Amino acid sequence: MTFFVLLPALTILGAGIAGIVTGPRDVTNQSLCGVPRYNFDLCSQEMRGVKLTVSTPAQDQAQFDNIPPACMVLSTVLTGACDTSQGPAPVPCGSACILYPNITDGRLDEIKKQLGVYGMTR
């Protein structure tokens, strides 16, 4: 008896290239902090049509509500800092909420850029 395993096609880089990923990971396709670009592409795809709420609950804080799961897992690198000693440590405030304490304008701009949020000022 022969068994076959059917694998779904993956969309790579959101560019519509379908295929099955096999072999070693392509390290040339890294983005922020060594996180594979496809993680950011998944976040971007999940952000489509999402109404994200951005607020400043206190001075030098930024809170993002209604963040999709693929973006939640990127919360530590969305500021462009590869570890929390280089930037604000994100604090989960719910299953789809992130609070960034002690955030600078530059780090806030990086988060907005990564999430595709524009027009929000402090």
Please describe what this structure looks like.
- The chain contains three helices and six strands, in the order E-E-H-E-E-H-E-E-H.
- It has helices spanning 37-47, 69-72, 105-115; strands at residues 10-12, 17-19, 53-55, 62-65, 91-94, 97-100.
- The chain has a four-stranded antiparallel beta sheet with strand order 3-4-6-5, with no helix packed on it. Strands 1-2 form a two-stranded antiparallel ribbon.
- The chain is globular.
Could you outline the blueprint of secondary structure elements for this entry?
Elements: E1 10-12, E2 17-19, H1 37-47, E3 53-55, E4 62-65, H2 69-72, E5 91-94, E6 97-100, H3 105-115
How would you summarize this macromolecular structure in one to three sentences?
The chain is 21% helix and 17% strand. The chain is of the alpha+beta class and 122 residues long.
Strand content: 15-25%
The span between the termini is 65 Å
Rg from C-alpha positions? 17 Å
For the biggest β-sheet, the strand order reads: 3-4-6-5
Mean pLDDT: 74
Quaternary structure annotation? single chain
Q: Residue share in helices?
A: 10-25%
What is the helix/strand order? EEHEEHEEH
- Structure annotation, total helices: 3
Shape: globular
Spans with pLDDT under 50 lasting ≥5 residues?
1-28
By secondary-structure content and strand pairing, the structural class works out as alpha+beta
Largest sheet: number of strands, sense, barrel closure = 4 strands, antiparallel
List how many beta strands DSSP finds: 6
